[in-house]
């Protein structure tokens, strides 16, 4: 996450995108949609009760901690997906204390994601969930109607069920989707 160093180089805000994302050419301006620079923004994976496959409480519960991990409106632990994150200058040090992160297996289940969530919770960083359209993942559901193309940012996260039978990997699906983006969005 060297992207945070951009805040030291004069940028007021920085948008981080995973390499497995595609930004819709007609996407809304995320900086305008989320203009409160005091908040860190990322999609709360625990904010949609319709997607039980995305329940992150079992990942948070076993973590040793001496602080209160805030909960969302559904009574679930706030837990963001790290594929799309919007930072402001205020957040330059929001991930400080990495050396205090407990070295337990559940911390690394989703690469750096749980660790980043842990630090945001521990450092009491105020954050708000992005709209699902700014981090459109499959959330355990296939997309036979190609509704992902209505999103501002498509995220081909994890095992990615967007992959069609003729595609070998999500990388191949991303290439196909990008090449055919206009045909999908003009239907």
Concise description?
With 187 residues, this protein is an alpha+beta fold. The chain contains 5 helices and 6 strands; from the N terminus they run ββαβαβαββαα. The longest helix has 10 residues, at 113-122.
Q: Which features characterize this protein?
A:
187 residues, single chain, alpha+beta, 15% strand, 4-stranded mixed β-sheet, two-stranded antiparallel ribbon
Task: Provide structural commentary.
The protein has 187 residues and is of the alpha+beta class. The chain is built from 5 helices and 6 strands. It has helices at residues 30-33, 57-60, 113-122, 170-179, 181-185; strands at 13-17, 21-23, 40-44, 80-88, 127-129, 153-155. The chain is globular and about 50 Å long.
Number of separate helices: 5
The Rg value, from CA coordinates, equals: 17 Å
Overall, the morphology is: globular
Structural class assignment = alpha+beta
**Low-confidence spans: pLDDT under 50, at least 5 residues?**
none
Order of helices and strands: EEHEHEHEEHH
Q: Can you give the mean pLDDT?
A: 87
Distance between the termini: 38 Å
Tell me the strand order in the biggest sheet. Answer: 1-4-3-5
Give the percentage of residues in beta strands.
5-15%
The residue fraction in helices comes out at: 10-25%
Largest sheet: 4 strands, mixed
Number of strands: 6
